Here is the input.
Amino acid sequence: MAHRWGTERSIGVALRCLGVIQGGRKGRALLREAVARLERSPALLELARAHYELGTGLLRDGEADEARRSLTRALRLADTCGSVLLAEQVRAALTTAGVRPPPAPPAASSLSPTEHRLVELRRAGHSDRQIAQSLLLTPHDVTTLIEQTDRNLGATE
Here is the structure.
């Protein structure tokens, strides 16, 4: 069904799920393909999830160097998207892999779920109108939310 839908995001998410379910060498191949697909999409949070799953799978299979690289990328993406929960999971996996992860950015925890989604959509290059449609808000509400989020992140001028 994901191939019929035809977007890199839908195919990447489906491949990630299949990779997790399959496990082992075949699962890692599916996860690598998911990462490659998601790299070509604006879905940064999905890419972070795919890197996390690939990294933890590699770690279980004793491929520590590649696992650390994938987990480090997952952490950067999760922090960029403001996904506090995923970032915490990645930090725990990195610690297990023998890496001391950087601390969480302090401002990220001060954002609401809607603000996190707004940040993710903005970083993916969506217009205010597209964000409004995605979040079921008016364009004016999006402008207000952007100003509020920028204040919370300390990005005001």
The longest helix spans residues 64-81.
